[in-house]
Amino acid sequence: MTSTSDERVGPPSFGSERETLRAFLDYHRATLAMKCAGLTDDELRERSMPPSTLSLLALVRHLAEVERAWFRRTFEDGETPMLWSEKIDFQAAYDVSGSGRAEAFAAWEAEVETSRRIEREAPSLDLAGYQPRWGEEVSLRMVMVHVLLEYGRHNGHADLLREGVDGTVGA
Questions:
Q1: Which domains does the chain have, with CATH numbers?
Q2: Which of 1, 27, 32, 158 lies in the 20 to 30 Å Cα band around 60?
Q3: Residues near 111 by beta carbon (within 8 Å), at least 6 away in sequence
């Protein structure tokens, strides 16, 4: 078993609420990228176990949808289409049959940058946006915590998937 190279920047021990949320979210984004580093498209497509369609590539695609749904659609344009489904179907991202690293990571990285821009430009964590899926207003604070929890959950999956692909373990 090997350990992955860890170049992530950890969150601050002291900081404002916003700095802390931003840093934890970026740490988890970097964790997902680290779990996928050095793998081929075929390795990224390896499924956890039948009948599950869970794979590292599926997680990257799914988290691109999460970023889009919770930042872009909530704070900029609720009509922005999802990336891999015409309706709001987060499971559609798990169909990686015609997908590869380049396509998935380009989409994910673009959505992450949009999310970062929206957060940076927001006057405060109290910025209200409309979450069309829930049909209600939510704060930027709530969105950042929600997306952080999504990454935490799915990075746990990524740990197991990566170990299954090549035995690599690490935080």
A1: 36-166 (1.20.120.450)
A2: 1
A3: 64, 67, 68, 71, 72, 83
